[in-house]
Design goal:
The complex is a heterodimer. Chain A has one domain (3-215): Up-down Bundle (Methane Monooxygenase Hydroxylase, Chain G, domain 1). In chain A, 90% of the residues lie in helices and 0% in strands. Chain A contains seven helices and no strands. In chain A, helix 3 runs antiparallel to helix 6 (173-208) and helix 4 (114-140) packs parallel to helix 6. In chain B, helix 4 packs parallel to helix 7 (170-182). Classes of the chains: A mainly alpha, B alpha/beta. Chain A binds chain B through residues 1-2, 5, 71-78, 208-210, and chain B through 226-227, 230, 260-263, 268-269, 272-277.
């Protein structure tokens, strides 16, 4: 029954996962460019963003075509609706990776205090862990894993706060300007992880048909 | 009787039992038999007033049989038997003092094939009221006009009322049949695949009509077209015969919007997404 339609949905999900992996890739590259002060690497991330945007738009268009022609319902409808939302998150995550890369270009002219590099790298590693878990949860429809995402996100928020504390110690004005760029980058990283947590809520809806927020209100 | 009813109410799943004030038809533990064959079993549900309820399910799942229980049309088939309760506005329609003919006035029916009588458009609509004793020409004129207006057919036929009903197009004939039913002021309208034999424009007109009529008439529609069920109904009931030869039953009953986005039962989900049936 409706084999062609089913294949199309499967292919669409595969494409969305592909974009997700690209987003993980550019996030990793942006952090590396920042930590290494590598301007070329940062530029490659910036240049790649149009391709991610186009791929996201392609998914949205394809979803609309399927809705218009196939009248999907129930789990098929939830899958399509969720995938459209998820690529919107991916698109914004890609933009944040671009912002980190721009910060990398602005800070590459000099080396700052090593503590801040270490902090941003540690934060980057944690964000990478959240993104990988989110992609796995999406691929497998794994509810346990999608519910775990907020927990994985927590230390990232802590590191962002620690960044501020480090910033307060800096006295030199040159250092301060440089460090403010690093703080912004840290903030962008934290936002990328937040998007992953939101995607986790979409995955829960996709699988169960229940909105996470509504769930919590009912239980309260 | 009251005890039995309250007991069965408490046992029923919460989503199939509605608030007292909004219930038009209350079904409790209904089983239906064609001779020895138990076609439907254990049906408990509440059909809401001023709403459209859709019955969906694969062929042979008993949805039309169940629909015909509401105006005792099955009585006309020898060897059929109903066990359980069907209350219309609180009255047991299978009670000893119920006149099936009067019941069928209150619970009108529209079939898959439009079936106008071989007489004029006017006489088709006036047939029921005449049968119920309306004789005055001006009264009949009013009823015919109002009924055709309610069926969204008046504008198309007002100048050809004396023309034969069978000369109309299929979609117009179906609306004429709806006008004929409305002329006797029914409380409930049963529609058994009313759009399967007509063109898409007429389908649209009948769907619009259902939305207009539901404020005054409770509508129950059997349809094989799931998009139609999703478009026109407030509640949806999904029936299924899981094993050939075994009775069919009501798998899920709920708000249409919920059934078509997040059905609770996997069998409903598999059916509406086209994974079987």
């Amino acid at each position: 029954m409706r084999e062609g339609f089913r294949k199309e949905l499967k292919q669409l999900k595969k494409s969305v996962l592909g974009i997700g992996r690209d987003v993980v890739g550019v996030t990793k590259e942006a952090v590396a460019a920042l930590v290494d002060g590598d301007v070329d690497r940062a530029q490659r991330v910036i240049d790649n963003d149009d391709a991610i945007d186009a791929a996201c738009l392609g998914i949205e268009e394809h979803s609309l075509e399927i809705i218009a022609t196939q009248f999907p319902v129930a789990r098929d409808l939830r899958l399509l609706h969720s995938l459209t939302y998820i690529v919107m998150h991916f698109e914004r995550m890609g933009d944040l990776a671009v912002n980190i890369s721009k910060a990398a270009k602005r800070t590459a002219y000099r080396r700052g205090p090593q503590t801040l590099y270490d902090l941003i790298q540690a934060q980057g590693n944690l964000v990478h862990r959240v993104l990988e878990a989110m992609l796995e949860a999406l691929e497998k429809g794994d509810l346990e894993l999608s519910h775990k995402l907020p927990e994985l996100d927590e230390p990232i928020d802590h590191l962002f706060k620690q960044f501020f504390r480090e910033l307060a110690r800096i006295q030199d004005e040159d250092d301060l300007e440089w460090a403010s760029q690093m703080v912004l980058a840290s903030r962008y990283l934290e936002r990328i992880a937040d998007h992953a947590v939101d995607i986790g809520e979409r995955i829960t809806y996709m699988v169960t048909g229940q909105f996470e927020g509504a769930y919590e209100e009912e239980e309260a | 009787m009251t005890d039995t009813l309250s007991q069965s109410t408490s046992q029923a799943a919460p989503d199939v039992v509605a608030e007292e004030a909004t219930v038009k038809i209350r079904v409790r533990d209904l089983d239906f038999y064609y001779d020895d064959f138990n076609a439907l079993t254990g049906i408990t549900c509440d059909i809401k007033a001023q709403a459209v309820t859709a019955f969906i399910g694969p062929s042979g799942c008993g949805k039309s049989t169940f629909l015909r229980c509401f105006n005792r049309m099955n009585d006309l088939i020898p060897g059929t038997r109903v066990v359980g309760t069907v209350l219309l506005d609180g009255q047991d329609i299978y009670g000893p003092d119920v006149d099936p003919v009067d019941l069928r006035r209150r619970v009108g029916m529209i079939f898959q094939q439009p079936n106008p009588f071989p007489m004029s458009i006017y006489d088709n609509v006036a047939y029921g009221p005449r049968l119920h004793g309306v004789k005055k020409k001006s009264d009949l004129d009013d009823i015919v006009k109002t009924s055709l207006k309610r069926a969204n057919l008046w504008k198309e036929v007002k100048d050809i009322l004396d023309r034969g009903g069978l000369t109309l197009s299929g979609g117009q004939q179906q609306r004429l049949c709806i006008a004929r039913v409305l002329a006797v002021q029914p409380d409930v309208l049963l529609m058994d695949e009313p759009c399967s034999a007509i063109d898409p424009t007429s389908v649209q007109k009948i769907e619009d009509l259902m939305a207009e009529l539901k404020s005054t008439v409770t509508i129950i529609i059997v349809t094989h077209n799931m998009q139609q069920a999703a478009r026109v109904s407030d509640d949806t009931a999904f029936f299924l015969q899981e094993v050939m030869g075994e009775p069919a039953h009501l798998v899920e009953f709920g708000r249409t919007a919920e059934i078509f986005t997040s059905p609770k039962d996997k069998r409903t989900e598999d059916y509406i997404t086209g994974r079987f049936g």
